[in-house]
Structures are given as structure tokens and as C-alpha cells.
């Protein structure tokens, strides 16, 4: 899936965007769980990782290389830090885009301490030559440093201390198989269940010293798109509202009112998401309608509709991408409180109506 794109080309900061923005980073550092016991949800990943790390500790060895894959905001960076904490090892943090040349990587690798954790974020965006150097480093703890240029260049082999690479990616499918195969353990992070996000919200509220009742936490969790980063961001906006407009305590009512101000609806759709859905339903009878036509109707770029709004609508089962165009599901009608035109059925029924209206906008 194309998780990256949901945020990559966002025209403005979105309160429901999954990428870290603005003051997120500073606050997140304070909210990060410090060990596996504190890490909420991702039961499978936690259990497996716990075994991998315990076994390595018992052997007195460095842990296998770990690949963390999953959408932005699900806890990959957090887990990498937890791995370091659990192994009682220092961590070096860098990212694929920061490594432009193989030499950049060689410099990092050759300065690692024994047992150090190297966290390589966005590992799918590393350059090819660096990637090839990484293969050998991961497998044999060795790099060839090239000295000189042209025919006179020589490769000087350099032994590395054993280390653990923790790679993170939003696009596991983009990793070349030889790289993927060199990880001893791959953890695939899923979106969180509402009850898990509720625990994230309650925990964060405790750390931020905010009073919240269970219904208030549930309300925020339900609007957080399965993503802890978004849950924490919404919590902060609701906290502001509760402080200014009420007595500071977050209840369901306060949370709902606050997020109403920020135009985040009961399912976590924002203004743009709703505009797309509304156009699809009200102007095109639920589709099918072409992407360009839909984009013109909401006054947005094609790419914005496709990459910013649609991924979540598709994931929520509100919109489907079909060969004939975008189609609303029955859940979309229900969510916007509208009644589908014919009881006959939503998708595929009368293609004529959709394509007829499409002409209206196509001219
Ligand atoms: N399982 C979790 N339990 C509690 N908080 C979490 C969890 N996963 C993520 N978070 C919170 O969400 C924020 C974003 O997590 P992060 O690790 O930066 O995501 P990613 O690196 O995958 O984009 C962090 O501040 C962290 O506090
Ligand atoms: Mg991260």
C-alpha cells in the first residue's frame, strides 16, 4: 500500500495527517513508551520481538537485524528506541535520504560501537550504492572502503564491530529482496484498534497531566484513524479546548465539541475527506465517476484527491476505486446521513446515471 502518499503531498498541515509536523516531534519524545511493557497493542510484534531480544540477551550476542514496516505514526521509531533500551545498547539514528553516498554510510558504520543499534529510517529511500554496501555490512560485518578514483582506485576492507540494524519503512514492497532477506526479523505494524488507541490516549493524558474520562478517551480514539500519532495530536487540541472552554476535564461532550471545531468528524474524516465524499454522493449519485471529474468538483488537484483523501476513504470502506471510476459504498451514504438514490443497490447498478453526469463536468 501507498501509505507514504497520504501525507507526502499534503498541501497544508492536516490535523489528521499521519506524518510528524510542527511541534509533534518535541511532544512525541515525551510520550514515547520506554520499554516493550509500556508499548500498547501490536500484540504479535511485541511477543515476537520480546523473544528475539531475550534470546540475544541470553546468548550475550547482538540481536538479529530488525525490519519494521508500517504506515507513518504507528510506532516504528518508538520501537527502535525500545529495542535499544531493552538491549541496553546505544542507538545511532539516521535515515535513507540522509545517506546520499556509500561514503556517508561507511563513515557511520565504521564509527559504531560493539552492540550498537543503528536505526535507519525510511530505508527504502537509500541510494543504490549505499544499499549494496549495507548488504555486506549486515551479513559479514565488513565494508569495502574505496580509496581513489578511476583505474587506480582500491578497495580497502574494513571489519566492523557486530551491530544491530533496525530499518523502518512505510513501503516494504519497495525494498529489494536481497535487502529484505538480510533482516533476521521483520515486524509488520498494523493500524490500531479503537480500544488500543483509547489506552494510548489515557496513557498520554496521564503524562500530560490532563484529566480525561473513559468516554472522552474513546471519543478521541475513534477519530484517530488507527494511528497513535494522530491520537496524541487530537488529544492536545482537545486539551486546549477543555482548558479554555470548560473546566479542563475531557469528557465525550468536550472531545466531540473540540474536534468539531477542527472539523474532524466521528470517524476521523476531515474537511477534505468529507468534501470528496459529498461531491461523489451529491453530484454524482455515488459514482462511478472519474478521478479528474471528482477533483474538479471539489476544487482540488487530482493528486490531492488521489493521494491525500482517498487512501483513508478506501481503507475505511467508504470509497472504492474501480476500473470505471470512483464509487461510494453504502457505508458512505450512511456516514453522511444520506439515502442512496435507488434501493436497487449501490455499486455497479446503473452505470448510465454516473457517466451522464460526468459529461456535465467533463466539458
Ligand atoms: N504502541 C504505542 N503505544 C503508545 N504510544 C505509541 C505507540 N506507538 C506509537 N506511539 C506514539 O505515537 C507517536 C508516533 O510514533 P512513532 O514511533 O514516531 O511512529 P513512526 O516512527 O512509525 O512514524 C509517538 O509519540 C508515540 O508516543
Ligand atoms: Mg518514525
Features:
363 residues; two-stranded antiparallel ribbon; Rossmann fold; RuvB-like_N; binds adenosine-5'-diphosphate; EC 3.6.4.-; Helicase, Ruva Protein, domain 3; alpha/beta; disordered C terminus; binds magnesium ion; 47% helix; helicase; Arc Repressor Mutant, subunit A; five-stranded parallel β-sheet; 3 domains; 16 helices
User: N-to-C terminal Cα separation, in Å?
Assistant: 33 Å
- Cα Rg: 24 Å
**Topology-level CATH name of the largest domain:** Rossmann fold
Oligomeric state? single chain
Report the count of strand segments.
9
Q: Which sequence of strands runs across the widest sheet?
A: 2-3-6-1-7
Mean pLDDT, rounded to whole units?
89
Bound molecules: adenosine-5'-diphosphate, magnesium ion
How many helices does DSSP assign?
A: 16
Q: Uncertain regions: pLDDT < 50 for 5+ in a row?
A: 4-11, 348-363
Shape: globular
Instruction: Give the DSSP E fraction (strand runs of 2 or more residues).
Output: 5-15%
Structural class: alpha/beta
Helical percent range? 40-55%
- CATH H level of the largest domain: which superfamily? P-loop containing nucleotide triphosphate hydrolases
Q: What is the CATH architecture term of the largest domain?
A: 3-Layer(aba) Sandwich
Largest pleated sheet: 5 strands, parallel
Structurally, the number of domains stands at 3
